[in-house]
Amino acid sequence: MAKMIMSSNFSDDLGILDVPVVVNSFTILIGLAAVFLNLLVIFAYTSDRKIRSIPVNFFILNLSISDGMTGINLLIYFIWIQQGARLLPRSNVLCTLWGGFGVAAVLSSTLLVILISWDRLKMVTDPFKYRQLTRRRVAIQVLCIWIYILLYVTALIFLAPITIKAVFNRDVVLGICIISTLDSHASYISISIDFLIPLTLLIIINGLIIVRIRRVTLDRLERQRLEVGSAAIITSEEDRGDTPIQVDTISSSVGTKPFQLRHITDLHEVSSSSQNQNATSQSVRREFKKMHKTIRLLLLFVSVYMLCWFPFYLGLIARSIIYVEPWINHLLTVFVGLNSVINPFLYAFMSNKYRERLSLILRCRIR
């Protein structure tokens, strides 16, 4: 995780990394977008009582805070690249604070995404118990995450120099923040703890959600089918019981009327049966459409996380084996920030309440 904050291979004598203009533009664009979008989510939460009344939205608030921190970290990264040593004091304090800030941002975002997925799993597996979820319980879970992050960053700053030789430091000659390059063994440990384990948890949790949703949907459709079938059988039995009496009674006085009445009754039975079948068919299509939409959304959550993080950790392994151009390291680091830009759309703006509030905010109609 520490390797994600900044690259360690700097060669410019002034302490300024030689990065292509396109990559620099991408850096500031992702940073500004992450800060702006997550500020919108934070403002929507704090200004809308209905949004605050839903406990799970507190998870989304903290996710926006951590993603906003990631955007700020990218902007600091961009300024540092452009200005180099001129903005850094003659000590390691700023490098240490900056490194710890970046680690806290990305680690909290990852943990909160896992926590949100776990919350959704509880919602679909035990909905009655889930209704008892309170804001206090959610706040305790979030507090535990931030305490863990604080301990993790503290251990990274004080223990990393002793263990994996990766420490936030300042090069006296170049005047830049550096991190000692991880060897291949430490790189594999880092990718396992920081990427593979969270990704595995997300896949397992969202897989269980998909299985549960599919099972619930199929059970609901089966009950609807049985209810429609039972209603059709009861209606058919009632019609068969009533019709002979009407036929016998009327046949004694009128010759061909029984056949006409029986024909009308048959038409009503066919029409009612057809309507029930059409209603059931439409219900099945709606349920399956809803289920497939939910499954695609859950797969999207996992895919976005994997696609944003995998290139960086692939580069981490490559850097421990071969030389990689510094601007490529920088690009892979910035690409991780893209996850902080996408998260507001995945976890907040898909909610109708957030979208309505966002519309009011952008039109400056906040009451």
Automatic annotation (TrEMBL):
Compartments in which it is found: Cell membrane
Domain G-protein coupled receptors family 1 profile: 37-347
Name of the featured protein: Octopamine receptor beta-2R
First-listed, main subcellular location of the protein, grouped into a coarse class: membrane
Any GO MF annotation of the entry: G protein-coupled receptor activity
Residues passing through the membrane, by range: 21-46, 58-81, 93-118, 138-160, 195-213, 295-315, 327-349
GO BP annotation list: adenylate cyclase-activating adrenergic receptor signaling pathway; positive regulation of MAPK cascade
Example of a GO cellular component annotation carried by this entry: plasma membrane
Annotated PROSITE patterns: G_PROTEIN_RECEP_F1_2
Organism: Holothuria leucospilota
Keywords, sorted A to Z: Cell membrane, G-protein coupled receptor, Membrane, Receptor, Transducer, Transmembrane, Transmembrane helix
Annotated Gene3D superfamilies: Rhodopsin 7-helix transmembrane proteins
InterPro entries in the record: GPCR_Rhodpsn (IPR000276), GPCR_Rhodpsn_7TM (IPR017452)
Top-rank lineage group of the source organism: Eukaryota
Keyword flag Cell membrane: yes
Membrane topology, record value: Multi-pass membrane protein
